[in-house]
Amino acid sequence: MAKLGKSAQNEQEGKETVEFFKDLDREALNTERFIEKYSKPLGLVFGVLLLGVLGFFAYKQFVIAPQNTEAVKSFLAAQKNLAEGKDKEALGGKSAANPGFIGTANEYSSTEVGKLSAYNAGLLKFKEGKFQEAYDLLDKFSSKNKTLMAMKYGAMADAKSGLNKNDEALSLLDQASTASDDPYTAYYFTRKAGLVALGLNKKAEAKKYFSSIDEKYQDYDNGMSDSYIEMTKYY
Question: What is the phi/psi pair of residue 95, to 5°?
Fold first, then answer.
């Protein structure tokens, strides 16, 4: 019975993850459009949605049991501005009166909330089109949560893609595809890596990713991996 309960819990967690990613998934299923656009900042929608998720984690980890009261206050003030659509104020960093995510990340870099602020600042810099700054900020984020780390690598890959460094983007997507134990997260980034590899005409690498999907993640793929594998022969 214990095993059955754990299986049911894992299934529920998988369903929740699918719900989180399903809107992001639709565009990528159109292979031709993805390949056409993959070098553009496609992570923006993903990043915006992730801000809300990270806000939830911040509430649990830093409001319920804050490590640094001032850091938490700065973070929550920035998060409030973000929720109100005030991106520049949320980013902050230009005055002591409004540290924002930038100031919180710099002032409290050794704390978890400081690292989370760096992540959010990175996503906002990405939105501004400042891809190198975005990459550098994202690189400061770390977490024990493997799924969040996968998302970090995925966002960093988008920043590299914005800089037209798509080989480096592919390497980061490879990291994203193996960073999480969550099957749908792994599937999502494995397929994205395969599509980017296909766009770079790296057919062998693309086939490796799509074959992995065919072996491990058929439940999420709706049979698309077979088509992708065929594309590696002709694209």
Answer: -155, 155
pLDDT digits (tens, 9 = 90+) for 26-71: 433 443 444 444 444 444 434 444 555 555 555 555 554 455 778 8
In Å, how far are 21, 214, 226 from 232, measured between CA atoms?
25, 14, 10
d(CA 156, CA 139): 7
Query: Residue 185 class from Cβ within 10 Å (0-12 exposed, 13-18 middle, 19+ buried)?
Result: buried
Q: Is 95 helix (H, G, I), strand (E, B) or coil?
A: strand
The alpha-helical segments, DSSP class H, found in the chain are 2-29, 31-37, 43-58, 69-83, 87-91, 100-107, 112-127, 131-138, 146-162, 166-179, 183-199, 203-216, 218-221, 224-234
Grouping H, G, I as helix, E, B as strand and the rest as coil, residue 98 is: strand
Instruction: Judge whether residue 152 has pLDDT over 80.
Output: yes
Give the Cα separation of 68 and 48 in Å (integer): 26
